[in-house]
Specification:
- This protein is an all-alpha fold.
- The protein is about 55% helix and about 0% strand.
- Helix 1 packs across helix 3 and helix 2 packs antiparallel against helix 3.
- The relative contact order is 0.13.
Length: about 80
């Protein structure tokens, strides 16, 4: 299943073609073909972006070294 973000990004990539459709410089079939070409390209770019940012925000807790409490000698004791 294609993610909505991929379709939105593909629409953004093919936006110049949609503009040329509005100003009557391209046919609808050419615009749809450019959109269909933009979908797998957008999917690859979004997958790469998700791969790069997958590790951000996750932290692994490192266990500290165990410490045994020792009584502190005050200034009065010798």
């Amino acid at each position: 299943m294609i993610r909505p973000s991929v379709l939105l990004f593909a629409l953004l990539i093919s936006l110049p073609a949609w503009y040329r459709l509005v100003v009557d410089e391209l046919d609808l079939t050419q615009v749809l073909l450019r959109f269909l070409i933009a979908v797998p390209i957008a999917a690859l770019l979004m997958a790469g972006f998700r791969f790069l940012t997958a590790g951000y925000g996750t932290t692994t807790e490192e266990h500290g070294t165990p410490v045994t409490p020792e009584p502190m000698d005050g200034p009065d004791k010798k």
